[in-house]
Design a protein that fits this description.
- The complex is a heterotrimer.
- Chain A is mostly helical.
- Chain A is built from twelve helices and no strands.
- The longest helix of chain A has 32 residues.
- Chain C has two domains: 176 residues, Periplasmic binding protein-like II (D-Maltodextrin-Binding Protein, domain 2, 3-Layer(aba) Sandwich), CATH 3.40.190.10; 156 residues, Periplasmic binding protein-like II (D-Maltodextrin-Binding Protein, domain 2).
- Chain C has 14 helices and ten strands.
- In chain C, strands 1, 2, 3, 4, 5, 6, 7, 8, 9 and 10 form a ten-stranded mixed sheet that branches.
- In chain C, β1, α2 and β2 form a beta-alpha-beta unit.
- The interface between A and B is large, with 103 and 93 residues.
Chain lengths: 284, 430, 368
């Protein structure tokens, strides 16, 4: 869209503002569900309802009790601890394996590339309920069901497609002659990788890793099947919360998580700007 | 680049004898070896993940889907009866004779001892109601049976043992593999003469499958309509501004699915925020509150919201690559704003629309938690039934068969996706 | 590079952390979650752990998927649960499939304080050889008391749920045939004693669905017990079925304008099973827990926290006051004579046979 010019016709001016209005409405649609949970999490009642007191901005209608519940209730704390134990491990696995594979896939001659790609992307494509049921039966048989490693492996598998996709995208813009330059200057492949390739694709790796992290951190269907009580994660606790006892504590947790998301997104943005600086003008 | 020039050089010099590499081997051989090494290296890098995915993901899926045809429980629990039944002709209209009942008694005695007869009962109950209690009752009493003949004794336990329909079911499902679950997954059953459609009041899966496709299409179209303007705006604003706005797109994407769904419940219900606002503004009467959830509308709105980022991100990355000079050139040649957009800009964004659309569609078609919570009865998907059969009715075979049908559908779209854009070309912001 | 180091450190810490959690003797008890689990925690788990400091009870909230999960665990030969809280129909299924251990009430369960053996104290409620009853609960209706369109009338019979003229508004009903088809037939004029004879025929099922069809457009279906209370509190529905304990909590604890309608409440049982195939050690531990948790006093204690009736006759006189509200719990029990004038008991045998079949029709009807 070209900006508004002094010589624009009235129709162009109307369209310029009309279009911005439409976009603003769509942004509101995107963000409204997130905005709505924030006041509700300070609800003094035990239901997901804007009470009369809240609408009248009466301080009695608001309370921190749901935050208090989140930070003191052992169920929520265990769930938080489990999520914090499971997600980084799953992220580490999927990022390490995914990055290697993405580098492999970006080579110029890969036999059966299409089939391999399809297999590696499949965790993102297969409906979660099918994945969950399949893993549940299979992991039961090999003794992984209900174990920490079972959940970690399952989540790592679900996270890898995101790593593959983001790292492959970074590698498209990667100038291979840099590797050759390093090699011709006597660096061995490992050294070349660590010193030359890795720093350049690192933003892609990290953003893929963040996607993998969020996949694990937000995943509920698979953990419900593959996990057991000792692996109860935050989404699991939220899900049983929604089913068995609707309580705004869930919304308090969500508000905390949204805050964390904003921090993560800011990190991403900073990383992106940094990567742009490193890579100069090369296209992303 | 060097590779191709070397190849080109080799190819452009035909009849002048084999070209030699520095170590004296023919260049062709040397290149082939290098190529092989390169392939091997690529595969070595891919292998760990491939192995990992095969073990942790593909094997479980295969294992699960295999249940859709597996039927070992019948021949394993009733080995003698199955053999004896081979002699029986269901068309005779009469229950089998003493030989079959004798075999049944022997089988049931062992099965009851191991407590697996009721498991068989529930398996066959999926096909003909009443078999479950028949086996439960008979298993309890088979211990007290006197020396043959057994047929009258079985008939005394329950006269249903004389019912041809029961025996027809046992005979039909006596093989180790069955197509029965697949028939059920498309609303069919075995009738007197081969597979036929179920009575109308029991058909559901075709309806659900059709609805899943229909609703996913509507969701995809909504995502295009809402995603296109936003992606366009983001791609054409200065980077600093667009990156801040991008956070508004990514924030919902990173917020827990469960939270977003509950939030839509708060917004959409009849006493919810949207209806309250409309009533306050006087747009609808208090008695005429809109029904925005527990139906298709709820599913469409909530899922469009959840999947919208998957449309915006690929669209954005395609639009970023379109040079503004195209549109400027068109305008300088006399096109007005609309023609320049529609004839020049839009065609360039079609790959992005394709990428986003197929991605959204594939993800939508497998959804289950959101429809379950906001979809009521008219807004649920086939995945909801799969979940029901896995955890409630325990008809795992049918769940697997439905899973195969759904997966086949998705593979078709994945293939289309790969055709249109190639899986390598997906990007998620970043 | 820094971030890679950071990731590695976090991961190592996570592994160490994972290893440390396995030390003391743990017992996994599976239940429903929410207020119900909380009442068990207060009445059973906490006192038990106090008596046995070396035992740590882990709560798993998978009762809704208990049969599926136990079956898969059994297939795999790796049962990780020790004691499981299930409804009676699931207990019967589990017992039938050999997935639950058989219990001898007089050997494994405590006698009443006056010496009455457990088998007599529980009486008819021992509906399966594997099932140790804990509570009697009922599925019944709650309605809002402030509905203007009702002109001051209040529903007094379950058939008022089907009366859109006198009691307009949305209803919340469970998304399964059980209970709903029984109510529909009773309100369609079927003699309550013959409900299951009628339901056993295709015409009977059609008749029930036809009756439900008259209100279908005004029904919001629920699948989790927390949904009806939330909808009643929101004013999203004016009347709805759910478990009586949930309604108690909405009315007495949350102080919402809601009342109970006990007419034709459906009784059901909930209790413990011990999975088959536990090691001797774990089995002994599980039996020890169950012996403690189902004695007369413990069952009566649970009623302090939630309004479900204890399954032992000897517990009834001990039911006292609510732990926090201090109100008498006896009048809130589904079994209180005042509430139990018209009741149905969940028909286990009938539903075991006909569930798949009626459910197929039900689902097709819902999807229309």
């Amino acid at each position: 869209m070209s900006g508004l010019q002094p010589y624009s016709s009235p129709a162009q001016v109307a369209w310029y503002y009309g279009f911005r209005l439409i976009c603003a409405l769509i942004f509101i649609f995107l963000i409204l569900p997130i905005l709505v949970i924030i006041p509700l999490s300070f609800n003094a009642s035990d239901f997901f309802t804007f009470t009369k007191e809240m609408l009248a901005l009466d301080p009695d209608g608001y309370s921190l009790k749901h935050y208090n519940d989140f930070f003191t209730n052992s169920d929520w704390q265990t769930a938080l601890a489990n999520s914090v134990r499971i997600a980084p491990m799953a992220t580490l696995l999927s990022t390490a394996l995914g990055t290697l594979a993405a580098i492999g896939l970006s080579q110029s001659h890969v036999p059966f590339r299409g089939a391999i790609m399809a297999a590696l992307i499949s965790p993102m494509i297969v409906p979660l309920i099918i994945s969950a049921a399949g893993m549940y039966f299979f992991y039961s048989r090999i003794g992984l069901q209900g174990t920490y490693w079972g959940v970690v492996l399952a989540h790592a598998a679900l996270g890898t497609p995101f790593v593959i996709i983001t790292v492959t995208a970074t590698l498209v813009g990667f100038d291979r002659s840099l590797v050759r330059a390093a090699a011709s200057l006597g660096a061995n492949p490992v050294r070349t990788f660590v010193k030359v390739q890795m720093p350049l694709i690192l933003p892609g790796v990290i953003s893929g890793g963040l996607f993998a992290f969020v996949t694990s951190f937000d995943e509920v269907v698979v953990v419900l099947f593959v996990g057991s009580a000792s692996q109860k994660t935050l989404p699991w606790q939220m899900f049983t919360g929604l089913r068995e006892q609707i309580s705004p504590t869930i919304l308090a947790v969500a508000t905390v998580m949204v805050t964390v998301s904003i921090l993560l997104l800011t990190t991403l943005e900073i990383l992106r700007r940094r990567s742009e600086r490193i890579r100069g003008l090369s296209p992303g | 680049m060097t590779d191709t020039t070397a190849n080109g050089a080799a190819g452009s010099q035909p009849d002048s004898g084999p070209m030699l590499a520095a170590d004296g081997t023919p260049l062709k051989v040397s290149l082939a070896r290098a190529l092989r090494r390169q392939k091997l290296r690529a595969l070595m890098l891919i292998a760990p993940l491939l192995l990992f995915i095969v073990i942790t993901f593909l094997a479980p899926i295969g294992d699960m889907l295999f249940r859709s045809v597996e039927n070992n429980i019948v021949p394993e629990t009733l080995p003698r009866t199955v053999v004896a039944l081979e002699q029986w002709d269901p068309e005779s209209g009469e229950a089998p004779g003493e030989a079959v009942f004798e075999a049944l008694q022997a089988d049931l005695l062992i099965a009851a001892e191991k407590k697996i007869h009721t498991r068989l009962g529930s398996r066959l109950n999926y096909e003909t109601p009443g078999i479950s209690s028949l086996f439960r009752k008979s298993g309890r009493r088979v211990d007290d049976m006197e020396q043959g003949p057994y047929k009258p004794q079985f008939l005394k336990i329950d006269e249903d043992w004389g019912d041809v329909e029961i025996w027809r079911t046992i005979k039909r499902y006596s093989g180790a593999y069955t197509a029965g679950y697949f028939l059920a997954s498309v609303d069919m059953e075995y009738g007197a003469d081969g597979p036929q459609l179920k009575p109308e009041d029991e058909r559901i899966y075709l309806t659900l499958l059709w609805r899943t496709i229909l609703l996913s299409t509507v969701i995809t179209v909504s995502c295009i309509l809402l995603g296109y303007p936003v992606a366009f705006l983001l791609a054409n604003l200065p980077l600093r501004t667009s990156n801040v706005l991008m956070i508004l797109v990514l924030l919902p994407f990173w917020t827990s699915l469960l939270v977003r769904t509950s939030s839509w419940i708060v917004l959409l219900q009849q006493q919810g925020v949207i209806n309250d606002t409309l009533v306050t503004l006087g747009l609808v009467g208090d008695g005429g509150r809109l029904e925005l959830m527990h139906n298709e509308v709820g599913t469409i709105v909530a899922m469009t919201h959840i999947l919208l980022p998957f449309m915006i991100l690929p669209l954005y990355s395609v639009m970023k690559t379109i040079s503004p000079s195209y549109v400027r050139a068109a305008k300088s040649l006399g096109a007005n704003d609309w023609t320049a957009f529609w004839r020049i800009y839009f065609p360039n964004t079609v790959p992005g629309i394709g990428a986003g659309a197929v991605l959204v569609f594939i993800l939508a078609i497998g959804y289950y938690i959101t429809p379950e919570l906001v979809g009521g009865t008219s807004g649920i998907f086939i995945s909801n039934r799969i979940a029901y059969h896995i955890s409630s009715s325990l008809n795992w075979g049918l769940a697997a068969a439905l899973g195969v049908v759904l997966l086949a559908l998705i593979l078709v779209f994945y293939w289309l996706y790969d055709r249109i854009v190639g899986v390598d070309n997906v990007k998620f912001g970043g | 590079m820094k971030s890679i180091k950071l990731l590695t450190t976090t991961a190592t810490a996570a592994v160490l952390f994972a290893g440390a959690a396995q030390a003391e003797e743990t017992m996994t008890i599976v239940s429903w979650g929410g207020a119900y689990s909380a009442s068990q925690q207060a009445a059973y788990h906490d006192p038990y752990m106090e008596m046995n400091p070396d035992v740590k009870i882990i709560n798993d909230e998978s009762s809704a998927e208990a049969v599926a999960k136990l079956r898969a665990m059994d297939e795999a030969g790796n049962v990780t649960w020790d004691v499981v809280d299930v409804v009676a129909s699931d207990a019967i299924r589990l017992c039938d499939e050999g997935l639950a251990m058989e219990i001898d009430p007089d050997e494994h369960l405590a006698p009443a304080p006056d010496g009455t053996p457990a088998s007599e104290d529980f009486g008819d409620l021992l509906v399966s050889d594997c099932f140790i009853p804990q509570i009697v609960y009922s599925t019944t209706f709650g309605y809002r008391t402030d509905v203007a369109a009702w002109n001051g009338n209040e529903p007094s019979s379950v058939c008022d749920v089907f009366d859109l003229e006198a009691f307009p508004g949305k209803r919340s009903l469970e998304k399964r045939p059980i209970n709903n088809v029984e109510w529909a037939l009773i309100c369609d004029g079927v003699d309550p004693g013959e409900v299951y004879d009628v339901l056993g025929t295709d015409e009977g099922v059609d008749r029930a669905l036809a009756k439900l069809d008259t209100i279908k457009d005004d029904v919001i279906w629920w699948s989790a017990g927390a949904e009806t209370p939330q909808r009643l509190a929101d004013g999203e529905v004016v009347i709805g079925s759910t478990y009586n304990g949930r309604l108690f909590s909405v009315i007495e604890e949350q102080d919402q304008p809601v009342k109970m309608l006990w007419d034709w409440q459906v009784f059901d049982l909930d209790g413990w099973i011990i999975p088959a195939g536990l090691s001797e050690e774990r089995k002994a531990r599980a039996l020890d827990y169950v012996y403690f948790a189902t004695d007369t006093q413990r069952l009566a204690d649970q009623a302090k926290y939630i309004s479900y009736g204890p399954a032992r006759q000897s517990s009834a006189p001990l039911v006292g006051q609510h732990a926090e509200l201090g109100i008498d719990m006896a009048p809130h029990m589904p079994t209180d004579p005042e509430n139990a004038k018209t009741t149905l008991l969940y028909n286990y045998e009938f539903w075991a046979d006909n569930r798949d079949d009626i459910d197929a029709k039900w689902q097709a009807w819902l999807a229309q």
